[in-house]
Design brief:
The protein is mainly α and 393 residues long. It has a single domain (8-386), classed as MFS general substrate transporter like domains (Growth Hormone, Chain: A). The protein has 16 helices and no strands. Helix 11 (246-273) packs parallel to helix 13 (302-317). The protein is globular. The two termini are 16 Å apart.
Length: 393
């Protein structure tokens, strides 16, 4: 069978646009993590209240993963991503108008999560349709590197804007990439959808009901718990726990994401290149992240702790390409719905961790809260012993 994939240049142009979209998505969701250092004292918000605001985003995000993936399967990723990007802009402006009401902040963040939900399921559909199986690890890794780009930009760009003009102006600036991405998707002419790989054809078009897929989702759930602690609390941890000033927090707060810009596509590239032992990429990434998190949590030197946490973040995110490549192999033409289901698991973990972490930190200390994260990362690594990775071709 001949697979009518787009020419390589067109294929990677679309991957580049997906990466821009992922970058805009993460900037729109992590902007509050930078703004929180001014929002909390201005409105008298506690760590627990802000944790609920963070988790409200993940509630909407997790709830809409499968429906948004089904929409991408049905209508194609371009239309869905265009609508989503303009939704991010509206929700961010709603957050700036919340006037310190926790309830309004939670509603605005919940709706932001709803509109952000299609980001990676739609990217999964796009990659499964436009990229051959043998290149999907690096393609998914490249797209998801937008996580690192968006998160790295947030403190470096928004910190100075916030210091000069306040947190509301910083949030407005954060919507510019979303506007560019939304307009770009309106202009994109997608190639004809090619046949899927013969080994992944599924006639029922439903989410796989196999032990391997459920273990993959469970491992991704634990990875989400670990990853979202760094997304939402790392900047605050540097300021409040390690006592960095705003400038040093901006620099060290960007370090994990700068490293992730390299580690995420590198993890996908190595996964694609290996012919045997491919599962060692996610195993080493998840277990190594847990080990460095535990070391950093108890390190007496603040700079050493920050560097350990930065590399822990890079490792926990380097597994993204292998997860999504394996998902598209197991799901075939249902990659939107299956990717949404798997990503819903990740965000259930992420829904729990931003709210639970400050509670554990208050009761038992930040060391114990981070040790819980380290242990869950190790369990996620162990689950890959029973997960068959996407085959090399």
């Amino acid at each position: 069978m001949t697979h009518n994939h787009p020419p390589p240049s067109a294929r990677w142009d679309l991957v580049a646009l997906l990466t821009l979209t992922a970058t805009a998505s993460y900037l729109a969701r992590t902007n509050v993590s930078v703004a929180v250092v001014q929002m909390m004292p201005e409105f008298g918000l506690t760590q627990e209240a802000m944790g609920r605001v963070f988790s409200a985003f993940l509630a909407g995000y997790a709830l809409m993963q499968v429906p948004s993936g089904m929409l991408a399967d049905r209508f194609g990723p371009t239309r869905v991503l265009a609508i989503a990007a303009f939704g991010w802009i509206a929700c961010v402006f709603g957050i700036t108008a919340a006037a310190g009401s926790v309830a309004v902040l939670m509603i605005a963040r919940f709706l932001l999560g709803v509109f952000e939900a299609p980001t990676f399921p739609s990217a999964g559909v796009a990659v499964s349709r436009w990229v051959p199986l043998a290149q999907r690890g690096r393609a998914n890794g490249t797209v998801i590197a937008g996580i690192g780009v968006g998160s790295a930009i947030a403190p470096l760009l928004l910190g100075p804007v916030m210091n000069g003009w306040g947190w509301r102006a910083a949030l407005w600036v954060s919507t510019i990439p979303a506007l560019i991405a939304g307009l770009a998707w309106l202009l994109v002419k997608t190639p004809a959808v090619p046949p899927v790989e013969p080994s992944t054809v599924r006639k029922d078009g439903r989410i796989p009901r196999t032990l391997e897929f459920y273990l993959l989702t469970l491992s991704y759930t634990l990875q989400g718990y670990v990853g979202y602690i760094f997304v939402f609390w790392f900047y605050y941890y540097l300021v409040d726990v390690r006592h960095f000033d705003l400038l040093r927090s901006a620099l060290f707060g960007s370090l994990p994401w700068l490293l992730s810009i390299v580690s995420i596509p590198l993890g996908g590239f190595i996964f694609d290149r290996l012919r045997t032992g491919r599962r060692w990429v996610p195993i080493i990434g998840l277990a190594g992240s847990g080990l460095l998190t535990a070391i950093g949590a108890y390190a007496p030197n603040a700079y050493f702790a920050a560097v350990c946490m930065a590399f822990a973040t890079a490792l926990v995110l380097c597994v993204e390409g292998p997860f999504w490549a394996t998902m598209t192999h197991l799901a075939g033409p249902s990659s939107g719905a299956a990717g949404g289901f798997m990503n819903m698991g990740s965000n259930i973990g992420g829904l729990i961790s931003p709210a639970l972490t400050p509670i554990l930190a208050t009761k038992f200390g930040w060391e114990a809260a981070l040790l819980v994260s380290a242990g869950l990362g190790l369990i996620g690594a162990i689950l890959w012993i029973w997960i068959p990775p996407a085959p090399a071709k």
